[in-house]
Amino acid sequence: MTGQHQGDHGPAAVMPQSAPRETPQEQAAEWFARSLHDGTVLDSPAFHAWRSADGANAAAYDALGSLWRSDAFGAALAASVPRPSSAAVPGRRPVRPVWMAMAAAVAVAVSVTVLADGLRHAAVDRMQALFADHATGVGERRTVALPDGSRITLDSGSAVDVTATPAGPRVTVLAGEAYFEVQPVAAGQSFTVRTGDAEVRVVGTAFTVRDGSGAGTDVSVAHGTVAVRSQRSGESVRLEAGQAAAVSPTGRVTAAAADPDGFAWVAGRIQFHDRPLRAVLADLDRYIPGFVVLLDDDLGDRPVSGSYRLDDPRAVVRALAEVVGARVETLGDHLIFVRS
């Protein structure tokens, strides 16, 4: 903190008075957030006294350091918050100013885990408050009946806006994934689903639409027929039951076979066959408040198969870790690490 540093690091390095209930993780979060703003804190007698007072203190601080330097955690944050221009910080890889501000907020909230959970909910909360007619929180699924008898099932962390138009219902997927069961419509009418990248028109069918929040849109058809069109390029494709399409942000539309396991979440399950562990953990991460962070690239390449209920996604993470011989460690209630 410019202008406050003194030679003995005294006033700038005094640990805030802690309530007795503060855990080593919470105290470590305070020290860590302050060190990001003023690196001299780590040279202070107060910090060294706190760190050496209890082995749990040192372990908690080291865990936060490992998390902060982890490319996996950086990728998780990148997927959850907008990232402005880079700012160089001596001694570590470039970080974004907004991340620094969030880390400083840890010292106020006294919890890195609560911060991570807040990042996770931020995008959907904004959509829900501004535009969404229907939304779900992390780990929640909900089915909505429309006036025409069609049904929309929202997956974890999803939001949709529903509009009645003269041409028929129009649904905008604002975030996450939704499964549509569309009733047959009258001649000249259509049921339309939109994302930022794609438009899907149907007459009567069941299909999923997954908005990639800037990474494109995926459409999979369970039965019936749909027409998928890029909002950007106008390129389109007609899909039958068992087919899928990916619409990229640049407008490219690519058709492929639909993954039958991709519909399992509608029934409250997650299924996968010979998928890389990192891909499965990324899917599970959507159902867990906070983050699941894979700290071992080799583990991430291991193929796994299974069918699990989504009632307890943390238990699924533990089960998969046991299958591949990995360890699961937690930091608070919102951070789960999978490592060798």
Automatic annotation (TrEMBL):
Coiled coil: none
GO molecular function, one term: sigma factor antagonist activity
Region spans: Disordered: 1-27
Positions of the FecR protein domain: 133-226
Entries under InterPro entries matching the protein: FecR, Ferrdict_sens_TM
Superkingdom classification of source: Bacteria
Pfam families given in the database record: FecR (PF04773)
Protein name per the record: FecR family protein
The species this protein was found in: Caenispirillum bisanense
